[in-house]
């Protein structure tokens, strides 16, 4: 449980304090350097200013090689809050910006700005803030930051970050303890510049607003205690106290524990217990920055050790090489067995790798020990496990355990023993009988752990970047795949639509071709079934209507087209013999149908001739007289030819000849289509002999028998004409139902009997009936034409 504020304040007023565990009391030897006032060094021939002199990030250079700079001019800047600039300690020229060895135990080079002074020491324009209490706190913090002030007690933490109070502060502690042996820089600063330290304290009081300010000084610095007590007497909020001398009482956590009895958490900060601490050198720099506008370009450095002829404290410009300080104090190298220069005190300092190392903001002492002044034998022996180191550890650690694990490289186990809680005070190494430099092992182990952490952090960041990149690439891949799939689907849809359109177009083309083929087939069929002379036919004489013909032709075309497609699909691989057989069968059927059609045509022609004669005879019945009892045919009138007259015989012969010619022509045309051969023309008197149910070719019969039959047909026609004329003249003589008519006589149907008198069998198939109908229509047309020609001849004879 933490002590109450009032309880702590009462104990401070009574000069009663707490203590911390461990600690040692070495020979302080402060009298070597605290007897003289602080002096100033002459300008060195060059100044080496490291870019990074604090905890945090380094800034970026604002100058280039060859630039002229003024005293107090900023050389770097950075927007990072954990960064403070550096400034030119004097006016001069930038001669180089390069890596140089700096004040660090590792001796590693760091980037530095090298300036060659011009000797004029000309200041840049300064901007002091005299009435700072009327200004906003941010203005003061910016002024402190721009002045480049970092903790001057040794930590080097940026002061403007530390001055920003995030939690209520009860105690503001000003550390003037300076517990390290040999070091007297703060002692002389408090003696000589107590008032300016007080001004810095007032500025911090304005920024932080603590309940009470405690200035702590060890009791081995009585002059500094009196000086600070004198300048702070007028402020009731300030307590100047003396604490017992004990090393390391000047440590931050140890001093807080001594003054307040509160312990800072292992992973916490002093602000967590209501305390904030600043060094007296930092307070002096704050007053310089705010009240005078001066940046941090110099500090007090103690030059001590028996190897120096004139130990003292000096104002050293930041960047001054250590060699210049040694020359000023008259370094006696003969007093040392081995040249050794230590930056810092004998407990926490480290040996410099070179005397060209520059002074930095945290440099407070340069120790040059003579022979046997310090135990510098470096005679490291084995640990005897005496536990003396654990007894004097102010942080209550186990130094020997940390030593073993650090030396063995077992960094994880060393860290388990709270390695980073070590303040590197060196008390353990001071009491070690084996003279083991324990602090050096701890520093090395801490550095290795920090490197591992940095590498681990880099690896983690790299892993995160890799995973982020992998996720981004995977996302881009998925997006590309989705895009490709979408494009493929679109292409597939377009292709399907194109295929559908193509198939539709193909179907349309196929349908159009089929219709064209059907139309062509229909036209070919009609052409083959009609006479060659279209002028001899008339649509008015057709037996069937025109629309029925069109339907028949269309049906025939469709049937042929269908048959053609079926033949192409099913019989595409048929051999030549099958094609020949089909052609022969088709030819035989066509031949037979043609013969029947020719016979029917002849019969119809004879019938038409008889009808024509009958019509002619009826027109002259009024003047007909009986002439011959054997013929029983009435005699023609004066205007009409009689049976025995040459005119009547001539007309009958012409009608019979025309009928035979037309029948012959129809038969020849049908036979030509079947056999694909040309027939020789015959005379108009030729007749065609038909055969019953035979597949032989149709031949033209020019025998006497055929001529006899033609004469009989002509005679019958004349007789019918006379009879018709007689019936027209005498209605009483009309034939009875029992009498034979021209249609009933055997002569009227000569085409339906063969030469032996047997009846011929007629094909009654639909194709034969269709062919017969077409042939009959043609015959009627021809007969009508013949009738017109006969009438024209009769009129010509009458006129004659």
From TrEMBL:
Sites where the protein binds [4Fe-4S] cluster 2: 393, 422, 425, 428
PROSITE patterns assigned to the protein according to its UniProt record, in alphabetical order: 4FE4S_FER_1 (PS00198), 4FE4S_FER_2 (PS51379)
Cofactor: how and how many bound: Binds 2 [4Fe-4S] clusters per subunit.
Low complexity composition bias: residue spans: 753-780
Segments for region (Disordered): 452-800
InterPro entries: 4Fe4S_Fe-S-bd, 4Fe4S_Fe_S_CS, Ion_transpt_RnfC/RsxC, Nuo51_FMN-bd, Nuo51_FMN-bd_sf, RnfC_N
Membrane topology, from the record: Peripheral membrane protein
UniProt keyword Iron-sulfur, yes or no: yes
Annotated binding of [4Fe-4S] cluster 1, by residue: 383, 386, 389, 432
Enzymatic class: translocase
Keyword Chloroplast assigned: no
Keywords for the protein's UniProt record, in alphabetical order: 4Fe-4S, Cell inner membrane, Cell membrane, Electron transport, Iron, Iron-sulfur, Membrane, Metal-binding, Repeat, Translocase, Transport
Pfam families cross-referenced by the UniProt entry: Complex1_51K, Fer4_7, RnfC_N
4Fe-4S ferredoxin-type domain mapped to chain residues: 372-403, 413-442
Family membership noted in the UniProt record: Belongs to the 4Fe4S bacterial-type ferredoxin family. RnfC subfamily.
Quaternary data: The complex is composed of six subunits: RnfA, RnfB, RnfC, RnfD, RnfE and RnfG.
Name the UniProt record assigns to this protein: Ion-translocating oxidoreductase complex subunit C
Originating species: Alteromonas gilva
Taxonomic lineage from the root: Bacteria, Pseudomonadati, Pseudomonadota, Gammaproteobacteria, Alteromonadales
């Amino acid at each position: 449980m933490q002590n109450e504020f009032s309880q702590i304040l009462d104990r401070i007023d009574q000069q009663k304090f707490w203590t911390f565990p461990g600690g040692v009391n070495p020979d302080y030897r402060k009298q070597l350097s605290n007897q003289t006032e602080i002096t100033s060094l002459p300008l060195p021939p060059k100044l080496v200013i490291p870019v990074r002199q604090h905890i945090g990030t380094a800034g970026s250079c604002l100058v280039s090689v060859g630039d002229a700079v003024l005293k107090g001019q900023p050389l770097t800047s950075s927007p990072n809050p954990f960064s403070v600039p550096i400034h030119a300690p004097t006016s001069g020229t930038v001669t180089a910006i390069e890596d140089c060895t700096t004040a660090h135990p590792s001796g590693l080079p760091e980037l530095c700005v090298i300036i060659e002074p011009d000797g004029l020491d000309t200041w840049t324009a300064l901007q002091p803030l005299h009435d700072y209490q009327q200004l906003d706190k941010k203005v003061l913090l910016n002024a402190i930051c721009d002045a480049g002030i970092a903790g001057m007690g040794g930590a080097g933490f940026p002061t403007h970050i530390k001055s920003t109070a995030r939690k209520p502060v009860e105690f503001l502690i000003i550390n003037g303890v300076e517990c390290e042996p040999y070091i007297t820089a703060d002692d002389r600063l408090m003696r000589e510049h107590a008032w300016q330290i007080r001004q810095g304290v007032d500025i911090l009081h304005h920024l932080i607003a603590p309940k009470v300010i405690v200035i702590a000084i060890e009791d081995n610095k009585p002059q500094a205690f009196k000086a600070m007590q004198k300048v702070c007497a007028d402020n009731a909020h300030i307590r100047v106290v003396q604490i017992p001398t004990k090393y390391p009482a000047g440590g931050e956590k140890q001093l807080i524990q001594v003054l307040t009895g509160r312990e800072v958490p292992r992973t916490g900060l002093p602000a967590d217990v209501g305390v904030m601490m600043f060094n007296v050198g930092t307070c002096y720099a704050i007053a310089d920055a705010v009240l005078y506008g001066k940046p941090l370009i110099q500090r007090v450095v103690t030059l001590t050790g028996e190897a120096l002829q004139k130990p003292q404290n000096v104002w050293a410009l930041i960047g001054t090489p250590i060699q210049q300080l040694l020359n000023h104090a008259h370094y006696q190298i003969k007093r040392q067995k081995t040249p050794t220069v230590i930056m810092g005190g004998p407990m926490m300092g480290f040996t410099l790798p070179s005397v060209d190392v520059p002074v930095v903001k945290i440099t407070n002492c340069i120790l040059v020990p003579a022979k046997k002044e310090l135990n510098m034998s470096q005679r490291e022996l084995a640990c005897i496990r005496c536990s003396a180191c654990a007894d004097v550890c102010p942080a209550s650690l186990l130094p020997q355990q940390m030593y073993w694990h650090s030396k063995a490289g077992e960094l994880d186990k060393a860290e388990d023993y709270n390695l980073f809680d070590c303040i590197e005070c060196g008390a353990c190494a001071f009491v070690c009988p084996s003279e083991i430099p324990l602090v050096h092992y701890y520093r090395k182990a801490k550095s290795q752990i920090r490197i591992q952490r940095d590498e681990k952090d880099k690896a983690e960041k790299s892993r995160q970047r890799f995973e982020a990149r992998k996720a981004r690439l995977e996302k881009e891949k998925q997006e590309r795949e989705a895009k490709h799939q979408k494009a493929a689907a679109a292409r597939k849809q377009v292709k399907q639509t194109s295929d559908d359109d193509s198939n539709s177009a193909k179907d349309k083309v196929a349908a159009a071709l089929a219709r064209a083929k059907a139309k062509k087939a229909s036209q070919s069929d009609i052409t083959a079934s009609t006479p060659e002379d279209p002028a001899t036919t008339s649509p008015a004489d057709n037996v069937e209507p025109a629309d029925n013909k069109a339907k028949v032709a269309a049906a025939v075309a469709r049937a042929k087209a269908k048959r053609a497609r079926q033949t192409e699909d099913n019989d595409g691989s048929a051999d030549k013999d099958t094609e020949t057989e089909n052609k022969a069968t088709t030819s035989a059927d066509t031949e037979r149908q043609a013969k029947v059609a020719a016979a029917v045509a002849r019969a119809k022609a004879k019938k038409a001739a008889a009808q024509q004669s009958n019509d002619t005879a009826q027109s002259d019945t009024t003047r007909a007289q009986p002439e011959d009892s054997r013929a029983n045919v009435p005699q023609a009138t004066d205007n009409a030819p009689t049976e025995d007259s040459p005119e009547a015989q001539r007309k009958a012969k012409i009608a019979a000849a025309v009928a035979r010619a037309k029948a012959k022509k129809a038969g020849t045309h049908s036979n030509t289509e079947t056999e694909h051969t040309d027939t020789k023309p015959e005379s108009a008197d030729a007749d065609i002999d038909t055969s019953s149910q035979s597949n032989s070719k149709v031949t033209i019969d020019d025998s006497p028998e055929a001529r006899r039959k033609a004469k009989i047909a002509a005679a019958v026609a004349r007789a019918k004409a006379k009879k018709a004329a007689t019936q027209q003249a005498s209605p009483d003589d009309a034939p009875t139902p029992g009498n034979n008519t021209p249609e009933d006589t055997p002569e009227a149907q000569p085409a339906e009997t063969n030469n032996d008198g047997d009846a011929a069998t007629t094909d009654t198939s639909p194709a034969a009936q269709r062919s017969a109908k077409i042939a009959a229509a043609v015959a009627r047309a021809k007969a009508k034409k013949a009738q017109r020609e006969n009438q024209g001849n009769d009129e010509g004879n009458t006129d004659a």
